[in-house]
Every structure is written in structure tokens, then in C-alpha cells.
Design a protein that fits this description.
Elements: E1 5-8, E2 12-14, H1 19-31, E3 36-40, E4 44-47, H2 49-64, E5 68-72, H3 76-84, E6 92-94, H4 97-104
Parallel strand pairs: 1-3, 2-4, 3-5, 5-6
Helix pairs in contact: 1-2
């Protein structure tokens, strides 16, 4: 099976204000018959509970379409949010894009 990897790169803040843009990007990726979606969080400097909710929704949308959903390059604040909400095990998380590419592609 050929992989169709779609990469989404949110910038700076992932919160209730920017959640709709993430949702739209994931929907567009799924419309291209993506088999893997990678959300590269390298440029994300802050995420709140609404941003986390947007990621959970994106994960559910992806799984419903049989698409793998991955994250990479999460910063310390995002990592702490995942720890506080016990969601580390929910997401497939890679250290950076190179680690993702070495494992997935």
C-alpha cells in the first residue's frame, strides 16, 4: 500500500481561536485520501485545552477514515499539557520530523 502522508504545520498558538483552522486542514488532508497525517508542532509555542480538544477531534476524524494520525516536535509546555491530561498514550508522538520519517515512511 502506498502512503499518502499529509503534513500540517500549525503556528504559534493552538487554542479555541485557531482550532477551526486545524480542523479544516485535517478535513482537507482526509479529502486527499491521506493514509497518514502528521501534525508538526515545531512552531507551536502554546496550546490550551481547546487546542488539545482540537487534536483529539482530529485524531477521531482520522481514525474514522482509517488514517493514521501522528504528532511531532511538541514543546515542553505541550508535553506538560499532555502529561496533566494523561493523553500521551492517546497520540502517536515523534521527537521530530526526521524521527517520524525514519519510522513511518
Amino acid at each position: 500500500m502506498s502512503l499518502n502522508v499529509q503534513i500540517i504545520q500549525p503556528t504559534e498558538i493552538l487554542d479555541g481561536t485557531t482550532a477551526a483552522a486545524l480542523h479544516q486542514a485535517v478535513s482537507q488532508a482526509l479529502n486527499t485520501a491521506a493514509t497518514v497525517i502528521l501534525v508538526d508542532c515545531q512552531a507551536v509555542t502554546f496550546m490550551d485545552s481547546s487546542g488539545l480538544g482540537a487534536l483529539v477531534l482530529a485524531l477521531k476524524m482520522s481514525r474514522a477514515q482509517g488514517c493514521r494520525f501522528c504528532l511531532c516536535a511538541i514543546n515542553q509546555q505541550v508535553d506538560m499539557l499532555f502529561g496533566l491530561t494523561d493523553t500521551h498514550q492517546v497520540f502517536e508522538i515523534y521527537l521530530d520530523r526526521a524521527a517520524f520519517e525514519a519510522t513511518v515512511t
